[in-house]
Amino acid sequence: MILPSRNIYNASFQAVVNNPNSHPCICGKVYQQDLTNGYHNLLKHLVTKHKGYEALTKPDRTLQPTITDFLERGPCDLDKWSEWIVMKMLPISFCEDPITRRNIRLRSTTQRTLKAHMFGIMRRVKKVIRLILASGGGGGNVTRWSSTMKMLDRCVESIPYMQRMSSAGAIKARIDKLMLTPSEAIAASTLLADLKQLDTVTLEFQSEKVVMNDSTARLPATP
C-alpha cells in the first residue's frame, strides 16, 4: 500500500516551529530536510531503521493510533526513561533537557515518543488486569458492601470538618457541591446509623447457626 508522504511524516516525525528544516523522529534521532524538496531523507530513515512502518495503516489509508511499533526492536531505553521519570516524579520534558542528555548513556528520545511508550504500557497492563479479573470466576468489579459502608462512614465523619469551612474555602477546595445543609447532615448520620444496624444483622444472618425462626427477631423495628 502506497501512503501519502505527508501522512507518514505526521505519524513519525515532530515539527520544530523555530527550525522548519529540523525533524526529530519518534525514536529520538533528528534529521535535516527541506520539505519543499520532498521527504526523501526522512523516508529513507524509516525504511532503514523502522522496517514495517507500512503496517501501521488501515485499509482506508489512515494511520493507526499507536506509534510505538515504529520503535526499533531489542533492548529499549524507553523503559528506563519511563521508570526514571515515574519513580522520581519528573516532568516528561526532562527527557529533552540538553544537560540531561549530555550526562546520561540512554538513547535520546522526545516527549512525544516517551508519552506514546507510556500509554502503550498502560494499555498492555489494563489488558492483563482484565484477563486476570475475567478468570477469577466472580462477577463484575462491583464495590463490596463493606467498602460501601466504609465510604459512608468516612463521609459522615468529614461533615463536622466541612461545616467549619467557609463558602470561599469550599469553592477553592472544589468541594462546595459536596457541602450538606444541617438537615441533610442529620439525615445522612441517621441513615448511616440504620445501615450499620442492618449491616450487623446481615453479618449475623451469614452464620450457619441462625435459623429462619430467629431471623425476624433480629431485624430492626420499623417505624
Describe, in plain words, how this protein is organized in 3D.
51% of the residues lie in helices and 3% in strands. The longest helix has 24 residues, at 111-134. It has 3 domains: 1-70, no CATH class; 74-142; 145-218. It is elongated. Helix 6 packs antiparallel against helix 8. The protein is an all-alpha fold. The chain is built from 9 helices and 2 strands. It has a two-stranded antiparallel sheet with strand order 1-2.
Major β-sheet annotation = 2 strands, antiparallel
* Helicity level: 40-55%
Tally of domains = 3
Alpha-carbon distance between the two ends: 75 Å
| Structural class determined from secondary elements | mainly alpha
- Output mean pLDDT: 71
Order of helices and strands: HEEHHHHHHHH
Instruction: Give the tally of β-strands.
Output: 2
Strands of the biggest beta sheet: in what spatial order? 1-2
Number of helices: 9
Work out the strand percent.
under 5%
Low-confidence stretches: 57-75, 136-142
* Overall shape: elongated
- Mind telling me the C-alpha Rg? 29 Å
